[in-house]
Write a structure and sequence with these properties.
- 33% of the residues lie in helices and 15% in strands.
- With 184 residues, the protein is of the alpha/beta class.
- The chain has a six-stranded mixed β-sheet with strand order 3-2-4-1-5-6, with helices on both faces.
- Helix 4 packs across helix 5.
- The longest helix is centred in the middle third of the chain and has 18 residues, at 110-127.
- The radius of gyration is 16 Å and the shape is globular.
- 32% of the residues are buried.
């Protein structure tokens, strides 16, 4: 790869049936100070899902940036056209991780979501070289991408992701968690 990518999972958000406009919760806003360490990475470009919680995670954080480009390729992965109850959520995600080419009615399979974000990475690879690029998005999509580069990142590791969380995909395509563990 020509570039390094910092994958940023959004901070904790309030529940709302309006998935696009869900905002960060008080807990989410309070956790953003943990992201100050990202300033040491000399990030060149910032891209975010257009979903409010992903944008707010970067925009309201202590990370210093010039501008954030909203990119629909980083949007939340659509599980289904029907509402998934909380009681069904874990089983649904587990099924989709075990069957990456399957999707629910009106939803996006893991494979389709992966192709969407890989298309973005290919575009960024063609446009930039030797850059560090931050991608602010959602745990499901980022987990699928991490799994592409590191097959040991499975459903159980996805479940352990925090709000927020950060991973680095380096030029050698290695993946490492870079989120600092803090108490409180």
């Amino acid at each position: 790869m020509n570039n390094s990518y910092i994958l940023l999972r959004h901070a904790h958000s309030r529940f709302s049936s309006d998935d696009f406009n869900r905002t960060l919760s008080e807990k989410g806003f309070a956790s953003l100070k943990q992201l100050e360490f990202l300033n040491s990475f000399n990030i060149d470009y910032y891209f975010s899902s257009p979903y409010k919680r992903a944008f707010e995670t970067v925009n309201s954080s202590p990370v210093q940036f010039d501008k954030i480009v909203l990119d629909d390729s980083l949007r939340e992965r659509k599980l289904s056209s029907r509402f998934i109850e909380d009681s069904e959520f874990e089983e649904t995600i587990q099924y989709l991780w075990q069957n990456p080419d399957k999707s629910l009615i009106g939803g996006e399979s893991n494979q389709e979501a992966l192709m969407r974000i890989l298309d973005l990475l290919q575009d960024l690879e063609e446009r930039y070289s030797g850059k560090t690029i931050l991608l602010s998005s959602h745990g499901n999509l980022l987990g699928i991408l991490i799994n592409h580069f590191d097959s040991s990142f499975d459903y159980q590791k996805w479940e352990q992701m925090t709000f927020p969380d950060c991973f680095l995909i380096d030029k050698d395509e290695s993946v490492k968690k870079i989120m600092k563990v803090t108490s409180g």
